[in-house]
Structures are given as C-alpha cells and as structure tokens.
Amino acid sequence: MNLINNSFLIYTLLLVRLQNAHGQKTQLQSIAPECPNLDNGDIYTQSEFLSRLANQCRYDRLLLPTYQTGEVVYVHASAYVYFIQPAEAHDLNFKLHFLLQLRWTDPRLAYTLYSPERSKIIGESDLRERIWVPHLYMSNEQSSSLMGTDSKDVLISIAPDGEVLFSRRMQAVLYCWMNLQKFPFDDQTCAMNLESWKYNASILRLMWEKDNPVRLSSELHLTEYSLLDYWTNESVVRGDIVNMRLGGRSGNYSALKFTFKLGREVGYYLMDYFIPSMMIVAMSWVTFWLQADAAAPRITLGASTMLSFITLASSQAKTLPKVSYIKASEIWFLGCIGFIFSALIEFAFVNTIWRRKKAVSLKKVNSKYILKSTLTPRLVRKEFQKELQSSPQLSKSRSCTSLNRETSTDPAGPGYNNYLTVHSFPSAVNLPTITTQSFDDLIGTAGKPGQGRGSVTSGEELPKHTWTTMTPQEIAIWIDKRSRILFPILFVFFNIIYWTFVYCL
C-alpha cells in the first residue's frame, strides 16, 4: 500500500513539472519574435531587407561563413597605392597611403532567391557591424588605422551570390629596417606585412588577387627616392607561446606581403655634400702657394677649411641613425678629413725646415735624399757635418748650388764636390773663363805632364759630381712645389677608388 502511494506521489510531481515547463515555453514564444520572412524581398528597402537577412535568428557574425561545412575561407586581397613617403633615415620607417580591398564569399548572405531584382547591397560601418569580417593586422606597423571602428573611408558591398567586398582607405606608418652601408648610394627594400590574427591557416587563407594585386596611382611621385620595383608574395607564419608573435597562440597563420624596392636619389647629396666637400679640400691646397714662413695665413686657411668641412659633414650626419657599421658617407668624410689634415701637417713640416739655419749636404737632389736629410735627427746631422769638415779632401771643397742642381748616378761617393777655378787663355779678347772641376780630379791630374791644374781638354766630358748643399728655405720651397702636384693626384686617385666602390660593388 505504501508503495502505491509513493508511486502516485512521484507521478503527480512529474505531471506538475511538465505543466510548468509547457507554460514557460508558451510564455517565451509569446515574448520572442518570430524570425522575419525573406520572401518578396524586393518590396523592402535596403536597410529593411538587410535587417531581415542578417537577423540574429539566422546569422551569427562571430562564426565563420563556412562553420557548418568546415571548409577553408579564402580571403582575396588587393591594394591601390596612392602615396609612399619614406621618412628620414634615422626613423627607419615609411608612410603608406593606400586602399585595401578584401573579397570573400559568405553563403549565408546570398539573397538571389529572395530578392532577384536587387543587384547589390552597399553600406558603410553600419553594415560592417552586422556581418562577419576577417581580422587582419600589420605585423610591422608603427601606427595605422586598419579595420577601425570609425566610419571614415569604409565601404562594404554584398553581391546576390553572397560575395562580400570590403574596401578601406588606410594611412599606416610601417617600420623598414634599412641597410645604410652604402648611404647615400643605397637601395632600400621595404614591405607591408598583412597577417591573420584570429584564425589559423587551416580555416582561413589569405591570397592576393591573380590580376594586378597591387596597383600604383598614376600621380604617385617620390622625392628622395625612386621606385625601382615591387612584388607580392604569400606565406605562412608560425605562432607559438614563446615568442608571443600572434598573442601567444600556437599554429600556422596565413600572411601576405607587399614589397617594394626604393633607390635613393643622389642629386641632393651631390649638390649639398660631395661637391662642396671637394671644393673645401681643394681650398686647403692653396697653402702650398704661400710662403713657408707665412704661418698666420696658412694656419688660418687650414683651420677654417677643417672646421667648414666638419660642419658640413655633421649637418648631414644628423639625419642618420647611429649604427655600428661604417657607411659610405663616413668613408668619404674620413678621406677628405685626411687630405685637409695632411695639408696642415705639410705646413708644419716645411715651416720647421724653413726655420733651420744651417745648409744641408745632399748626395742627390731628389725626394729620397731631401726627405732623408730633413728627417734626420739634429745630432746625427751635426756628426755628419763634423765628418765632412775633418776629411782632408772635402774640407777644401766648396759647393755651389746656384751653378748646378743636376743629380748624378756616379757611385764614386762623397769624394766628388764642385770646385770653382778661373782659367786665363790667350786670345784676342782676354776674358776669364769659369769652369767647374772635381777636387779629386785636380789632385789626380796634378802630376801628369802636359796638363795644368785648370786645363780642360777639348771634347773631354766634365767630371761628374754627386754632393751638393741646399739651404733650408730651398728645401721648403722644393717640398711645397711637389705638394702642389702630389695632393691633387692622390685626391683624384681616391675619388676613382671611392666612386668605383659605391657604383660597382
């Protein structure tokens, strides 16, 4: 009996619950509106028809268009570039103004059967808030307005077959890691990287349009650069938890890249940097035409050219980043500074020689012996002069630099010096004749019969000499004259090497 009573009680409770559930369902049906009908869609306005087509009862904008079938959604992209502005080199970025178009097919938005006379649905941000839109981002952006919430320059159109065309004008500042080793003769390669943020490559694939994926405006003009080439490519990037590239989510994500190559225009740098620096270097050579003891004008000219060039180079270097490697412009700077500094060193050298008081004995009048004698320490020169004075043959000799400056290759050594003799010959007009003869020749021919001390046989070559003397002032002038030719030749040689390097390597 108790069992029958318990069973009856349970049955009564279940019946009450079923009645309550049926009442709640009836109440919800009376509150929730029915899914709007799409039949005879041509009679509705675009906004009314769109509100019915994308109603929450049949369309969920958080789900992929192919969530029911599990197929991959292909998003085709194209771009129209209005403006490219490479920023200053020290910023390592560029500004890009372009129109981005994304195209995909959403079967849930196909309305051919419901509104056959409607050719297209067009809207702006209000339409964007109703439908599914792929979430993309620029991996190398510094600042941009990609896929923003504002309604500026946004256009969306839906075709009868469900094809969606999303158009958005964008202005982005993107990083460009420049290689400035050949600056300002460098070519830079910059890129715009578009990557999928939310969906990996297994369910969403980004693709460039097959025909003209990137088009350039006919009014596109660059100032400091010239556009050499551009190309597009598709890739897949790897995301993992370690590098946090894609929000710490692992997997492969589809990516698009638009790359363009820019060549720097060197006209500005030639006119404002290289040609003025050449003129400053040539100006420093004017000191070679000034007298060696003119210290004030030569120092003023050398210091002013040095400061002028440093000011010119520093103003140009302010626009460059501080990188660890040496640039082509810095090689030019170091070369020109070296020539200007060498001109100052040359003046200090010849001025020191000019202020010497004793003449210098030279074996030959050429660069080797002149520089060797001028660079010889003072104590060594004094010992060499004592050695000359102590020699029984050389102590009686006298040099005459004003009569003969020619050098000789006779290896006889320092035993030959110029000696002045005056001879008298009987003739109608009794005039003295001045000849030069080596002192050693005089000694060697003194005991020979038929030959006098000053006689010179007709047709006989004069004895060669090797030793002479030059005053410090003559050596200083000799060095200045050679510098007038040597410095320009070396600078031309430096230019040949430099311009060959920047254009051929």
Ranges where pLDDT stays below 50 over 5 or more residues in a row are 21-32, 392-434, 436-440, 442-459
N to C succession of SSEs:
HHEEEHEEEEEEEEEHHHEHHEEHEH
Mean pLDDT: 77
Measured on Cα atoms, how large is the radius of gyration?
A: 48 Å
Percent range for helical residues? 25-40%
Shape designation: rod-shaped
* Terminus-to-terminus distance: 108 Å
Structural class: alpha+beta
Number of helices: 10
Strand content: 15-25%
Task: Please count the beta strands (DSSP E, at least 2 residues each).
Answer: 16
Largest sheet: 8 strands, mixed
Account of the protein in words:
The protein is built from ten helices and 16 strands. The chain is α+β, with helices and mostly antiparallel strands and about 500 residues long. Strands 1, 2, 3, 5, 6, 7, 9 and 10 form an eight-stranded mixed beta sheet that branches. α4 (about 265-285) runs antiparallel to α5 (about 295-315).
Briefly characterize the structure.
The chain has 505 residues and is of the alpha+beta class.
Which terms would index this structure?
rod-shaped; transport; eight-stranded mixed beta sheet; transmembrane helix; alpha+beta; 10 helices; Neurotransmitter_ion_chnl_CS; single chain; ligand-gated monoatomic anion channel activity; transmembrane signaling receptor activity; four-stranded antiparallel beta sheet; 505 residues
